[in-house]
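Tokens for chain A. Residues wanted.
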């Protein structure tokens, strides 16, 4: 399976000089949206974030402003993908059981996250070795 899955959103521009981007759960993205949150960077020195996987949660990340780099890891392969605001009509899938990290935030970075489930601290896997164990990769 491809680690990098980007979903394209409907993009409507007209003579009024703005664009409107619409996202519908189970239509433009593969799950119903139960939670929305955003990460707003407002420093030049923001530290990397994430460093976890989720047992059940599926998420879509959209970069509304600035840029950052995502790391996605399925236990076998690790990829880097840069998101920037020119991709604000695209969403990156962070699927369940995908280790993810966010790095290299620009000072103006604004990330919108669409989540398939309510917040649940017990859904997190914070330890990479434990993540591999859950995947059946005992090393
Ligand atoms: P966390 O998911 O660890 O952030 P990141 O993936 O960016 O490293 O969340 C940071 C804190 O915010 C943590 O204390 C949990 C809290 N939080 C909520 O209360 N609700 C939420 O929907 C999310 C995503 C986090």
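Reply:
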């Amino acid at each position: 399976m491809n680690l990098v899955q980007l979903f394209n959103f409907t993009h409507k521009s007209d003579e009024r000089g703005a664009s409107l981007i619409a996202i519908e759960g189970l239509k433009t993205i593969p799950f119903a949206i139960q939670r929305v949150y955003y990460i707003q960077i407002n420093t030049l020195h923001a530290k990397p974030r994430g460093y976890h996987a989720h047992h059940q949660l599926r998420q879509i990340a959209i970069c509304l402003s600035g840029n950052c780099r995502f790391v996605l890891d399925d236990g076998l392969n690790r990829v880097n993908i840069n998101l920037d605001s020119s991709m604000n009509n695209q969403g990156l899938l962070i699927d369940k059981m995908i280790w993810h990290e966010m790095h290299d935030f620009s000072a103006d970075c604004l990330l919108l996250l669409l989540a398939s489930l309510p917040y649940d601290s017990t859904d997190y896997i914070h330890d990479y070795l434990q993540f591999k164990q859950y995947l059946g990769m005992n090393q």
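The chain has a mean pLDDT of 96. The first helix runs from residue 128 to 134.
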